[in-house]
Amino acid sequence: MCLLVVVVYFLTLLLPLGHASLPLVINTWPFKDATGAAWGALQSGGSVLDAVEKGCARCEADQCDGSVGYGGSPDENGETTLDAMIMNGDTMEVGAVADLRRIKNAIGVARAVMERTTHTMLVGESASLFAENMGFTAEDLTTNKSLNIFSEWLKGNCQPNYRKNVFPDPSTHCGPYRMIAIDQAGHLAAGTSTNGLTHKVPGRVGDSPIAGAGAYADSSVGGAAATGDGDVMIYLAVEQMRAGADPSTACKTAISRIKRHYADFFGAIICANTTGHYGAACNKVAGFSTFFYMVSNPETDKPALLSVDCF
Known about the structure:
CATH class: Alpha Beta
CATH topology: Glutamine Phosphoribosylpyrophosphate, subunit 1, domain 1
Number of domains: 1
Low-confidence stretches: 1-18, 167-173
Order of helices and strands: HEHHEEHEHHEEEEHHEEEE
Largest sheet: 8 strands, mixed
Distance between the termini: 25 Å
Radius of gyration: 18 Å
Number of strands: 12
Strand order of the largest sheet: 4-3-2-6-5-1-11-12
Helix content: 25-40%
């Protein structure tokens, strides 16, 4: 019900948009404040990396729809852990963390991995210790809400869950947050942040922190980011744009490729190229026929809600 209210409110922000304007911020789901934080970073002279980091960090702090940041999606042990990734489209450098504990600013830690190490990803307790050594504050990621989710799950005999040949298959979905930012000169960055699937098996790493699965950025072509059932989410959207496809077609082609093998998967993709064109596509399944995403560019000068019909 709360999500419905938010969507109705955002619908009043819909604007007729052109499809070739820079700079550009585009992100999954109707998270207006996160889009605004990224757009504000670009407008104040920040880099595309700054924009992506600030946008994702705002979503982490706001606990966007409960699927990003602390206090949501507890695992089988009742613990909230975080995954995040950031990618520099100029240098192709990537920083990522997975199964991160105690640290709320996952996207910030991911950027520290990229800029302060020669590695791409750190995971689990070692990622948390690295973050603390880098000066990030250790805090409890549990809230009354996440405790209640876990308690109700236990009362329901631990259903649904993500075990195979032990319990029935799960039916829950997640909504990880993805962002792409392009500045006036065409420099591009992409980032992701999520607390993963509710009731996931501890230690599970989804697509979010994986470059080329959760998001990808190449300043010579464009960027793409996916949301939904991460364990089956792969795409070739950026390579489609490299071959000349427009972003909408590239997104649809990527979704079509997945549908051949996973007809009922839950997911969507956003794409943008370095000229400022953008698009999105999603798979139509029960309860998911329209995908909402946010855009900011010079034509809107503020976050604007867009949607695409799933196919």
